[in-house]
Amino acid sequence: MIAQSVRGFGLPLGSRLCSAQSVPLTHLVCTACAASHDATVPQNVSPCCSKPLYPAYDLAAAAQTLTKEALRGRVASMWRYREVLPVRLDADIVTLGEGFTPLLPAARLGAKVNVASLWIKDESQNPTGSFKARGMSAAVSMAKQFGLAKLAAPSAGNAAGALAAYAARAGLEAHLFMPVDTPRANIVECREMGAHVTLINGLITDCGAEVARRKASEGWFDVSTLKEPYRVEGKKTLGYELAEQLNWQLPDVVIYPTGGGTGLVGMWKAFDEMERMGWIGAKRPRMFCVQATGCQPIVRAFAAGTTFAAEHVDAHTRASGLRVPKAIGDFIMLDILRKSGGGAIAVSDDDMIRATREVGAAEGLFVAPEGAACYAALQQLRHDNAIRTEESVVFFNTGTGVKYLECFGD
Q1: Are residues 126 and 173 both part of a single domain?
Q2: CATH number for the domain that contains residue 136
């Protein structure tokens, strides 16, 4: 049974966190070769392999105060898991109340696809309207801790909005690069929060190239997806919340929309940490990655059995968050999908838009196209009998449909 289907306990930030300097972050680990790196200075990708870095913690120390019982009285945000988040001082936490979003039963949708236990993790209720708030809260908090002044990132839209908000909250500069056809709501959002916005005639990969070209001369710190170690730490709280809200029993299946992949890899990291702290066993959900037919590098690589994903040429989809033709964490995602016994599935834009209305009419949620893609994928997976009726399934709505009004007719 679900433990909470609402945001939570309503305590103000600072209520019953762990002590201000007890975070047991020990070092950073290269995801390619497992070499250790210094966590006391700002880092981007690993110096050894140029691959993502994971923060590592003294989990035995964390478990002394981070217990299931202690959580009952903690702040209703992602910072309830303070001991396994990297910020050293409470004073450096930059928060707008992100996390601890509802896990909502979806009985009507479940009946339509003949799944007995279906849930929607609704990330649209985060500040800035998407799951990106989690990662940017962690990354900007660490930037504040390190004394950084100027942050830069390429974005398909929602990450830019989140960085604009958290940088403004911290008093830092945000330099954002987005494709020219990014949903207008994201562009307006960023500009109205004081960010420096540059629109690029291209894809998010072209935006990333522009950040890389200028960051040294401009004095920017790059907070691109998985090109710094801490956005994934905010995203991993999805996994902690999922376990807590389901009374420490993970679902049989997780369906997740995947562009850069931090949510997927973050949850997997959380499951490992929880097992090492004795909270859960070795059983894992079967993880399914959802992409658009017009941009499906992970789907193709999974089908081909390769370790890395080739760039998807001429990527296109109305689900802007899924328009990521090449992801630096591709090898991590593919490993997770295979180890979990899950898979990767692509759905069309038309099916996403149709599914948006189905979810809205059945459950009262105006989901982003990326979230609707998960329901369309569930329909296809049930049709193919890849998910059984008796299995428990959670799919993620990563943002609000309000930011994608261009996708829908009058």
Answers
A1: no
A2: 3.40.50.1100
pLDDT of residue 156: 85
Give me the percent of the chain exceeding a pLDDT of 90.
Answer: 89
- Predicted local distance difference test score (pLDDT) of residue 320: 87
Tell me the average pLDDT across 116-140: 97
Helices within 222-283 (DSSP H only): 231-245, 262-276
Strand order in the sheet with 36-37: 36-37, 25-30, 53-57
Residue keyed to tokens 């894809």: 203
Which band of pLDDT confidence, cut at 50, 70 and 90, is reported for residue 7? very low
Among 279, 290, 271, 310, smallest CA distance to 375 is for 290
Q: Are 347 and 254 contained in the same domain?
A: yes
Alpha-carbon dihedral sign for residues 362, 364, 370, 374: negative
Q: How many residues does the chain have?
A: 410
Residue 354 reports pLDDT greater than 80:
yes
pLDDT tens for each residue of 19-57: 445 578 999 999 999 999 999 999 999 999 999 999 999
Q: H or E stretch including 393?
A: strand 392-397
User: Reduced to 3 states, what is the DSSP secondary structure of residue 216?
Assistant: helix
Q: CA-to-CA distance for 370 and 391, rounded, in angstroms?
A: 23
Four-point Cα dihedral 172, 177, 182, 188, nearest 10: 30
One domain for residues 383 and 276: yes
Question: Are residues 253 and 335 both part of a single domain?
Answer: yes
Calculate the CA 372 to chain-centre distance. Answer: 16
Nearest residue to 217 (alpha-carbon basis) of 144, 270, 132, 152: 152
Neighbour tally for 379: CB within 10 Å? 18
Let me know whether 86 and 117 are in one domain. no
Q: For residue 5, is it within any domain? A: no
Scanning 86-203, the segments in alpha helix (DSSP H) are: 107-113, 132-146, 158-170, 184-192
**What pTM was estimated for this model as a whole?**
0.92
Residues pairing with 179 in the sheet: 200
- 371 and 265 part of one domain: yes
Q: Are strands 221-222 and 173-179 parallel, antiparallel or unpaired?
A: unpaired
